Amino acid sequence: LRLAESGGGSVQAGGSLRLSCAASGYTYSSYCMAWFRQAPGKERDLVAGIYPGGRSTYYADSVKGRATISQDNAKNTVYLQMNGLKPEDTAMYYCAARFDYAQCAIREELFNYWGQGTQVTVSS
After folding, report:
1. d(CA 77, CA 71)
2. What are the backbone angles phi and psi of residue 33, rounded to the nearest 5°?
3. Coil, strand or helix: which one is 120?
4. Distance (Å, rounded) from C-alpha 113 to C-alpha 124?
5. Long-range contacts made by residues 110-118, C-beta under 8 angstroms, separation at least 24?
6. Mean per-residue pLDDT pooled into runs of 10, the chain (124 residues)
């Protein structure tokens, strides 16, 4: 499984971005997919996740109401739509996958595959 993120960039506070994670060698029903982020000097934290098959989603409290994770099975792509961006959203955003037919996870050590990341910078 290979993951490739795109869609990051620089935006002003209040703006929006849609991050994409293109997966190869992937069967959507077999993987929990998630987005994590890491700001300079900080730990990598979960942003959002989507269960195998897309049957449910979950979010960090810091982005609830502003973020939407979704997947396009035909394109083997997972998206993270971020609205109302804040300077504190500035970070490197990573796509991650966990091989699991039924469950998802919130701890990064439970994810088996990672992309290289895409930078999001939000200016005030």
Report:
1. 6
2. -115, 145
3. strand
4. 33
5. 111/32, 111/34, 112/1, 113/1, 113/2, 113/3, 114/3, 115/3, 115/4, 115/5, 115/21, 116/4, 116/5, 117/5, 117/38, 117/92, 117/93, 118/5, 118/6, 118/7, 118/8, 118/19, 118/92, 118/93
6. 96 98 82 96 96 93 97 92 98 95 89 96 97
d(CA 58, CA 68): 9
Contact 13, 122 (CB under 8 A): yes
The count of other CB atoms within 10 Å of the CB of residue 106 is 14
d(CA 17, CA 7) in angstroms, rounded, equals 7
CA atoms 17, 63, 102, 99: torsion sign: positive
- Please give the Cα distance from 33 to 21 (Å, whole number): 10
What is the DSSP annotation of 53-87? GG--EEE-TTTTTTEEEEEETTTTEEEEEE-S--G
The dihedrals phi and psi of 28, each to the nearest 5 degrees, come to: -55, -30
